[in-house]
UniProtKB/TrEMBL annotation:
Cofactor(s), names only, from the UniProt record: Zn(2+)
Protein name in UniProt: Methylthioribulose-1-phosphate dehydratase
UniProtKB keywords: Amino-acid biosynthesis, Lyase, Metal-binding, Methionine biosynthesis, Zinc
Annotated organism of origin: Embleya hyalina
MF (Gene Ontology): methylthioribulose 1-phosphate dehydratase activity; zinc ion binding
Cited Gene3D superfamilies: Class II aldolase/adducin N-terminal domain (3.40.225.10)
Binding of Zn(2+), residues: 113, 115
SUPFAM superfamilies for the chain: AraD/HMP-PK domain-like (SSF53639)
Length: 214
């Protein structure tokens, strides 16, 4: 397994705990912003691609207080990998399979899922997709700040991760690293955990702006 890049503490040597340190750091940041309230949301980073292995935040834990071992290693279906079983045992989020699907579809190195108020409200207001244009902040997700309409896709929610994954695959917009799930939240990704974090922050800003505009 390769070590995920971006700001791993020097004291953390093995790749799984290095990933755990990144997940804990990013979750604490989002919790501080009010974007992972209670135990909501889940974050993942890619450990290896062949076979696909993801480190995903464990289910049911306060995202502001994660430790480096509060994660589960899952495969391409979101199923925990036995050889990486943690002590004490942790459960992966039910949404781990969707993280793996996003990685397979987009080649992302990290997938962050948060339940922000702006994502839920924007998904409700624009169920066919959230259109944005002529905003400097669009450059933060790799798009043009002028003369281009950028659509953040919106999909209906489901408790069936295969169904939700099918909807996500059908709705993906090339070059837009985000999908809003109606009445739920958003999935955002990047090549690295730091880029995924920046994309979350930029998309959240865009959604807040759009909601305030109308
Ligand atoms: Zn969720």
């Amino acid at each position: 397994m390769t070590t995920p890049d971006a700001g791993i503490p020097a004291s953390v040597s093995d790749p799984v705990h290095a990933a755990g340190a990144i997940l804990a750091r990013e979750a604490a940041r989002f919790a501080g912003l009010g974007w992972m309230r209670g135990t909501s949301g889940n974050l993942s980073v890619v450990l290896s691609r062949d076979p696909l292995r993801l480190a995903v935040t464990a289910s049911g834990l306060d995202k502001g207080e994660l430790a480096t071992d509060d994660l589960v290693v899952v495969d391409a279906t979101g199923t925990p990998v036995p050889e990486a079983a943690s002590t004490p045992p942790r459960r992966p989020s039910a949404e781990a399979g969707l993280h793996a699907r996003v990685v397979a579809l987009t080649g992302a190195g990290a997938v962050f899922h948060v339940h922000t108020l702006a994502a839920v409200r924007a998904g409700k207001r624009w169920p066919a997709g959230i259109e944005l244009r002529d905003l400097e902040m669009l450059k933060g997700i790799g798009r043009s700040a002028h003369d281009e309409t950028v659509t953040i896709p919106v999909i209906d929610n489901s408790q069936d991760m295969t169904e939700l994954g099918d909807r996500l695959e059908a709705a993906l917009v090339p070059g837009v690293p985000a999908v809003v799930v109606a009445s739920h939240g958003m999935y955002v990704w990047g090549e690295t955990p730091i880029q995924a974090r920046h994309h979350v922050e930029i998309v959240e800003w865009l959604l807040e702006y759009r909601m305030a505009e109308d």
